[in-house]
Each structure stands twice: as structure tokens, then as C-alpha cells.
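pinned: reference chain
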Amino acid sequence: MEEQLIKKDSKNLINNTLIFFMKKKIFILGAGVWQLSGISKLIRSGYKVYVADTRKNLLEKLINVKKFHINSYKISELLNLIKKNKISTCISFNSDFAVPIINKLNKKLGNNFYPKNIISTLTEKISFRNFQKRNNFNHPYFLSDYKKIINYKNYKNNFIIKSNISSGSKGIFTTNTISKKSIFIKKCQNSKNNSLDSKIIFEKRIKGKEYGGNCFIKDKKIVDIRITRKILKRNIVIGHIYPSNLNELTKEKIKKQLTDYIEKLNLDNSIINFDLKIFKKKIFVIELALRGGGNGLTDVIKYSSNLDYDKINYEKKIYQPKKKDSFFYCSYIFGSNIEGHIKLLNLNLNNYEFVLKKYIFKNKNEKVHKFMNNSQAIGMIIFKIKKLSDFYKKKYLFDKKIKLLILKDKNFI
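pinned: its C-alpha cells
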């Protein structure tokens, strides 16, 4: 009898061990700049990581992962790949394009997923503005019909052209400095080409300071919210500062408004990345996304609070945050002013105690594009400051320290 129990216990132990290792497998879609940090954390946490991407050059940079270079994001092919490797968990880090694909994969695998209309609302800018309009949320004046947009006479008056479905700041243009109608139409066409569905949205630019952040929803309630101050240059996010220095009343108003969105969308057990503006005490939610934030947002939150939103993404739980200190934690993203190949790239910050971490995303001899959106970043620096005004002093120092030489290439693609 005792021998049978031992055999039974041994069998259970083996089965539990097998289940444990099955759970440790995880599939990641996307190997871009803002996915690297999350992937490395999964590896350090003991997961067996499988990464798929259409971009072979990005996959080549990854180590200690199983890599899949794919030609397209066909659900059937991805599903076969996942089932073949007996993977049950699929996620992506900070990637807009991956959200609907991961959602479809989770539906096919019998995991939690969102209805198609919710995914559309949170990945398509036109759908999101229409959602705001239907529910009487603050939103800018906008047009989505292409013919009406290119025939709009008052286009110079503080408007923005945006791709309907894209990642980061791709296909975004302001119209204030556009001098001719032909240039305006060209910008609209450029934005259209950057959009996955060849649609654009044209909207009035809201004045005021811009903020970003992440929040974690559990049991349909916000259990944690972190708000950053965004630093932009020509509509490109070049940094985040945390804490945002907003007063408690304003932070509560933001939380209340995001709660209203969450209730209308019926969101649960998710990370939400948000962008908003505050103008004349009114809160305008610019975007919501079913993912974490890029551009160093998760890094600055982690250094300040000890809450790691990359880990929250796959663990779906909050650890005890550390006590607030007197520092502001910042990210600074930099790129190239021209297109070409990297001849020299060096950034020596070893003697600066306020520098917490630096990332270099490109290698010597690698092709680079002019820094027009965040996917074209060359590097990022995470640092801390005592005063908000010190951000630009440190940025000036970093710009002097960055040794970057780009060789122009006439045949650059």
C-alpha cells in the first residue's frame, strides 16, 4: 500500500513538474527596441522564451531565446508554431501592431481575450475618437474621410495628421509649418502609407502639457496608476519624467476619467498605456492602448517605485512599491540627424552617478534612418535629477557626450 502511494506521489510530482515547465514556456511577438527589456526579464526569470518577428536583423541581436523569422503575421502559421512547441502563453511588450494578433492567438488557444470591437477601439485612432464622441468624452475636432481632409481649407490652423493604425510616432505630422497645399497633401499621403489600413485621421491639436503612463486593472478596477511627464520634440517622444509633479487632485481626476473609460470598455486584468493632455483644467485622453509604454516609461517607473510593468504584464500581480524618494527619474532617447551607416558610436557615462542605465540599440556599420519616430532610436539613457528643470541640463550634457558618426549612403534604402 505504501509502495503504491509512493508511486502515486512520484507520478503526481512528475506531472506537476511537467506542468510547471509547460507554464514556463512563453511566446513573444515582436523583437523591436521597446520589446528587448521585457524579453531579457523573462529570460532572467527562468522562462523559455520563443520570439517571432518579420525583421531578421532584430532577431539576430537576441540571445538565449528560440527565434522564428516569419514572412508575415498569419494567425494560422503562428498558431501552428505555438502548438508545435507546446506553448500556452502568448504576449507582447509595448507593441501596438502585436495587440490584435496576440488577442486572436489567445482566443484560438482558449485564453482570455477581448471582443473585436474593443481591440479596434484601442488600436485604431479613428475608432477611438468615434468612441469618445459617442460617450461624450473630451476629444478634439477630427476628420477621417480622406477626401474631406485633403480638401480642408484651414489645414494650417494647428492640426495634426496621423496614421490610423501604426506604432509609436510613425506617420504623425503637424500642419503649422506647412507652406503649400501640395506639401500638405504629400504629408497626408505619407501618413496614409504608414498606416496598416491606409487610413488617416486629421484632428485639431490640443494645447497644454502632455502626460503618459501605465495603469494596471484587476477585477475591473485600477489597482495601480503611474503618470509621467512626456518630453517631446517635433511630436517625437524623447523622454519621460516620473513622478509627473502633478498635484494629488489632478491625479485623482485623471484616475476617475480613466476609470470611466475602463467601465465603458469593460476592461479587466490588463495593463493600459495612456497619453493625455491637460488644458484649462480639462483632461483630454489622446490615446489608450492594451500594452505597456515604451520610450523608457517602464524603466523610470521601476527605478522610482520598484514596480516593474514589464513583469506585471506577464505575472498580472503587483509587488509592494518602495517608499517615495526626492528624485525625478528620467529617460532620454536619441537618434541620428541623417540616414546612413554607423561609422562610430560611443557613449561614456561611467563617471556620472546620476546615470542609472544606458541602452545602445544599434551596432557599428548598421543602417540607421533619420530620427523621425521612436522605432528609429539609436539609444536611451535612464538617469535621475533633483529638479524638473535639470532635465534639459542633463540632455545638453548627454548630447555632448554622444560620439556618433554616420556615413551617408547614396544608395541608402
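why pinned: The radius of gyration is 23 Å. The longest helix spans residues 2-23.
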